[in-house]
Amino acid sequence: MQATINPQTTLKKHFGFDHFRALQEEIIEGVLNQKDSLVLMPTGGGKSVCFQLPALLLPNITLVVSPLIALMKDQVGALKANGITAEFINSSMDENEQNDIVQLAIKGEIKLLYLSPEKLLGLLNYLVNNVKVSLIAIDEAHCISQWGHDFRPEYTKLALLREKWPSVPIIALTATADKITRRDIVKQLTLNEPNIFVASFDRPNLSLAVRFGIKKKKKIEEIASFIHARKNESGIIYCLSRKATEEMAEEMLAYGISAGFYHAGMSSEQRSKIQDDFINDRIKVICATIAFGMGIDKSNVRFVIHNSLPKNMEGYYQEIGRAGRDGLPSDTLLYYSLGDVIMLRNFIEESGQKELNHEKLNRMQQYAETPICRRKILLAYFGETLEKPCNNCDVCKNPRQTFDGTLLAQKALSALVRTEEKISASVLIDILRGSHRKEIIENNYDRIKTFGAGKDLSVHDWQQNIIQLLNLGLVEIAYDESYMMKVTEFGKSVLYGKKTIELVKIEKLESFEPKKKRSLEIDDTNDLNTDLFDYLRGIRRHLAEKENVPAYVIFSDATLKELVDKKPIQVSDLLQISGMGEFKIKKYGNTFVKEIKQWLKSNDVKAPKTDTFMETFRLLNENYSVEEIAETRQLHATTIYSHIAHLFSKNIVSSIDNYINQTEYNIVKEATIELGETKQLSPIFQYLKEEIPYHIIRLCLAKLEKEKNE
Q1: Residue 373 shares a structural domain with residue 424
Q2: What is the rounded distance in angstroms from the CA atom of residue 206 to the CA atom of residue 208?
């Protein structure tokens, strides 16, 4: 397969999607043009396609560096399910298995080879000398940076890849990296003037909610009620300690919820089994530490609950991102208490990079305690501005009282600019309140115009307001510059009067806890569509068990939902379903069409009507031949030609010259003159001694009719 093939065609053929998601097409174009790339795209945003699709178009193998065995297994399994040749090498395999796969790579019989960083470095010289490589993809690239939330020492040696393959493009991908981490990734991997793509971090299908200070017994009751309201849905409960995961799983089992636990203290066999049970829907809920999930590609996780406060925003974002990867509505719920904060700060004191980790925990706590739209805060942390409330978080659904905070913000931002953005938040507050302490006087901060401009507000109120400015994205903290505060581009637009902002009125600390418990349940409508969805889910589960793969590898919940909405009753209709590539249609198409027909008949539901002519036209536009359309639609080729003639007569198809030649046209034209311009096919067919087929005659008549009308 050569790089001249259209990426759009490949997307539909192998992945079953009609359109690229945001930035995917530009990223793929850059890779095919041999450019290095850094891609920041949220979990579920389509990162994998950015290197998997080019791998199919490039002449040689693509090497993929992936940190976890489960992640490799999931992605390779999904690729094979789409008819793509891919393999992985990791420590779970014996030497003979690894050698067999290396031989396949040498022969050029696989398009993608997944390796852990350790395995890649161990095989590096051999691969350089024996395998032709077109592309190197480094997944979870934040692991290479000391500023990243999941730093892994083995990743730091990956700079060798540039040295060994200087002309091979590298694409580094991550779902979570702030600005300093991005710069560090480029530096550590020695990327050459890379294209940098930052997709929106917004996951609007995820609801966001936080519950503060709920006592343990009541919290367990709430969580159990929350899960019971989501019958047959999968979810993850993240806990702070190993002991807490086991206790939570025990509590859920007591409430009749199918649950298991997962943490690093378990044997690898135990962890593999529980993970496999969860992936294959044998258990619905997994209670886990953050050791779980990075390698999970399960698309139908419907909720993520945090039993306690995460230690940083990157980890929290990545963990909630494991819900709703298929784009369907999913829920996230965070419980936390001051005890969580104290425990996490104790952990930080025993770790490296204390200052950095304390600051990151501060931002996490600010998110949990915010009185403004949570999604705004989450996106602002990653450098993205959401100007309007999201209406899909608990704060938006129960709004706090606001006021025009533009002037207040301008006072703070002006002070920052006048001090050349070289001060911390505490110094900023002292300047605004007109403090005469030693540091203020020594640096001449008492002489700037905004000194004392906010003395009417208490220290507490200024702290809360500055947190809002930080959360709204007007200012940011430079971790690599002694945590100094910087004014963002959005902040400058407010400072210079180009935009206004609303701030939330500061309330007393003790009033933070919600006065009234909000319902955590959702409606469970038991209509025919729900029945069909459950029916198709059962068909999918049967196929998955038969093939020993996770159910979502067959089809995602999003694909099943579209099958329910459109109720296709012929195989060609499946081409309209997102996630249905050619390979899967050939493999599963007849089964699902047959089952949908049977369900419609059993439930006395009429099948939706389809425009047979436009269905043929759509397939023609996708470059299907007449024979392929006939096979796909299970119709005769002559019927497809009659469709083309009709489409031509209606000016939907602009030309039919590809199907008839001038000699045939002239012969048919003369026959119609001799026979008195008949539009009947049989007399012409007989007159021409059956030498010109019916479908050619039909096409020629359509062209004659159009010429006559023109």
Answers
A1: no
A2: 6
